[in-house]
Amino acid sequence: MTETNAATNAATNAATIADVARRAGVSSATVSRVINRNYPVAESTRERVEAAIAELGYVANAHARALAGATNRTVGIIINDLVDPFFAYIARGVEREATRQGRLCLVSCTHGSHQQELALIDLLHEQRADAVILVGGSYEDRAYAAEVTRRARALHAGGSTLVLCGRPSLGTDVPTKVVEYDNEGGAFAITDYLITQGHRRILFLGGPPALSTTIARLNGHRRALDLRGLREDPALIRTGSLNRRFGYDGIRTALAEKLEFSAVFGANDNVAAGAMQALEAAGVPVPGQVSVVGYDDVPVAQELRPQLTTVRIPLEEMGTQAVRLALGDPDGADYLTPVQTSATVGTTLVVRQSVGPRR
Amino acid sequence: MTETNAATNAATNAATIADVARRAGVSSATVSRVINRNYPVAESTRERVEAAIAELGYVANAHARALAGATNRTVGIIINDLVDPFFAYIARGVEREATRQGRLCLVSCTHGSHQQELALIDLLHEQRADAVILVGGSYEDRAYAAEVTRRARALHAGGSTLVLCGRPSLGTDVPTKVVEYDNEGGAFAITDYLITQGHRRILFLGGPPALSTTIARLNGHRRALDLRGLREDPALIRTGSLNRRFGYDGIRTALAEKLEFSAVFGANDNVAAGAMQALEAAGVPVPGQVSVVGYDDVPVAQELRPQLTTVRIPLEEMGTQAVRLALGDPDGADYLTPVQTSATVGTTLVVRQSVGPRR
DNA sequence: AGGAAATTAGTAAGCGGTTTCCACTCCCGT
DNA sequence: ACGGGAGTGGAAACCGCTTACTAATTTCCT
């Protein structure tokens, strides 16, 4: 083996607190105190230690620190996909609040796999994250719920907190915190809006039928129909995926079947975008002949032409709330208030150009 | 203080490896061996230990593990903003590859602050991340480069790697790995394309002038002009931010000045989107009267009408490459190949509908 | 049968910090 | 002068896990 420059080559051992102590002529305890500023240290000593730290390029070992007792100041977040704006905005809220509190953020993605989701909870537990935030709707599945419950308890026993963000609670006896948004109310509001515009036959498109989010949105939709005395037509409820493709195909199929409808309620904005694309391709004017609405108000809603009428969810705020719920707000005066275990953020109707009166 | 249910209340100490050992009637070393499968253990013993682990709900402490020698299997990534698709795609590539290698991903955002960026490198160093991936163009700034260099060395000394993703190397004597994309080439290609469509006066809009990305794109742009024998008109180079607003305002101003141009080269897709919006608002047909191109090929490019002609960067692949460069590909046969220190991913011209021949 | 080799399990020394006790100076009041 | 606080700094016991190194059985040959 050829001789190479040792400096560029070697992964030499990094300096430890003992090295710093030696160099500064003090004990490691003193160095620790200088770093943490949690104990009086003479000015002159402090300076010597700080100089030694700088000279050695000392960087504390977060693992040793975490092990020795101090919390490791980390929060974990589990989302479906980093690129999906719905999740990205929530993640941004979490990341911002975590950073504000001087914490680091472990982000991991399930890409839709339940198995992966459970594995990630365990991984974050191993990392002793101060909080684990689980984002996105959940599926109705007894075994799965039991698995999540078990992990919530384990996390709690370890002094951490599982936060469910955008999915219903697992029951009052399971130690979790919950951040919800008003799916039912938003769906009610936007359906009602369509009805006041004269629409009677509204095609509900997309959303896996067992997903908590879909269920809640459908409930709101139905309640609005019901309150206005409209009969629900099963043929108009077409659940499925939450992507653009499904919206596109759904409309293609509906048109081919000559299904009668004057409005489309996409289970989210992606589906609505696909629907609009299919309508455009078929030469059906929006909102001239068919109106379209979505849900979430992600950026694509404003890119579409006509711009999409949808329901806004304060996604970033949900992320912030999730962190606060779990860890508290160090700046806030919340030590006065009782410990919150859940928060609900409101949804608002955003009227743009994709809805018109029924012809 | 009122008496509360101890079970729901207490953050009781989690089970340790010693608890498991006691319960299974073995030593902690044996438990460790069962968990890590790196040493032979009798089948019967293994079963007893595994049972004890399950009964106690034992979860290993990643910090203790990392301290005791095993790598902590973590990679850190520093980006500007989670919500920006440009960064989100790269982050996704990193996250996917990290997960594939059984590692966890620490994601943190600078929100544009240099100070924050340097602080985050330190924080990830403290976490002893196996690799730290720094994403996005860099500014020409001597002091700043020196700070990054110092940290690259420190990281290297600790056995970790700093990967620069989308920015030029700091020099061959600085121990980093680099993943670049061909900014210059892409800009050359798209400018050349505009020229072949007959455009002679192309307005280059956006991009901070000191940003490495802007510099490279401008170089490519200029080279194309030069090669076709076109004189560069300084009035047509208008650097600035990389957001939509800047594109919008830039066009408004240019139109108000009655600046003469038949094509716009947005420094990225956001700027191009803003430009198109301003042109639409001003009643200037695209691409009828003015052609527009962007750079990056983020999703918005396909939402715009007309769809945006732009340069595609394989963002997700960059993320994957960054991780592989730093950590190798455990599945690949790369132990045969020399250690790579840099990779360049190609850019490709994506022709859509926003460019037409000059009238 | 007797000892070498192979298996399997335990002991204990770290890993790099934090933190609880203690010890040692000074400085002050009486 | 002397007892007693402040004000500082050190020694050493952990935190929970990995991993030499060592020890105790079996197993297997000759």
Describe what you observe in this structure.
Two copies of one chain form a homodimer. Chain A is an alpha/beta fold and 359 residues long. Chain A contains 14 helices and twelve strands. In chain A, the strands form three sheets. Chain A has a six-stranded parallel β-sheet with strand order 2-1-3-4-5-11, with helices on both faces. Chain A has a four-stranded parallel β-sheet with strand order 7-6-8-9, with helices on both faces. A two-stranded antiparallel ribbon of chain A has the order 10-12. In chain A, helix 7 runs parallel beside helix 8, helix 9 runs parallel beside helix 10 and helix 11 crosses helix 12. Chain A is elongated, with a radius of gyration of 27 Å. The N terminus of chain A is likely disordered. Chains A and B meet through helix 5, helix 6, strand 2, helix 7 and helix 8 of A and helix 5, helix 6, strand 2, helix 7 and helix 8 of B. The structure holds a DNA duplex (30 and 30 nucleotides).
Itemize the secondary structure elements and their pairings.
Two copies of one chain form a homodimer.
Chain A lengths: L5 H4 L7 H8 L3 H9 L6 H14 L5 H6 L6 E6 L5 H16 L3 E6 L4 H13 L4 E5 L6 H16 L3 E5 L10 E6 L1 H14 L5 E4 L6 H16 L9 E2 L5 H13 L6 E4 L2 H13 L9 E3 L6 H4 L6 E3 L2 H13 L14 E4 L2 E3 L9
Parallel strand pairs in A: 1-2, 1-3, 3-4, 4-5, 5-11, 6-7, 6-8, 8-9
Antiparallel strand pairs in A: 10-12
Chain B binds a DNA duplex (30 and 30 nucleotides) through helix 3 and helix 5.
